[in-house]
Amino acid sequence: MNARGFSLAAAATVLFAASSGLSAKTTTYDCTAAGGAFSQMTHATGGGNPAISGNVQVKQLGTDSKVLPTATVRVSTKKDFVALQLTPERPDSKKVLVRVRNGTGSEEEFAELGTISLDQPISFRIDLLKNEVRVTAGDQSVTVEQMMRGNPTVALTCSTGSFQFADLSFG
């Protein structure tokens, strides 16, 4: 992606880091980015077979001629990634497309999980298993073959709009 602007939600990152020490605690990340800009919060997983779960909801869609409003939960290493992504079907749509992206730096695959209403929150969970990743969004689930080479990092990202990641839990 080619972003004209990028902002880091430092306060949310501090709150996130402080609250993620115990898996029983959850946190909320209100992610807002102006049109054409991105905002991101990251969390190192510490290796192993981590999982992330929570809910994500569109709060407001922005507009930009090049960058679509998007909310992404991405688990990645330097070489591999799996991401759950929400983006409107069209700029004026009242429906949000939910899909899974996975791959390496040179190859990428997509799996469509369906659509939800613009104002509907959706629960999600991403489980890293030995050589595959299971992604669940709402009542839909897909398992993709994806070995994570290295220690994964979780990134919650939004662009061109306002999204809420709530009840976030890492374990």
Automatic annotation (TrEMBL):
Cleaved signal peptide residues: 1-24
Keywords in alphabetical order: Signal
Superkingdom of source: Bacteria
Protein name: Alginate biosynthesis protein AlgF
Taxonomic source organism: Sphingomonas telluris
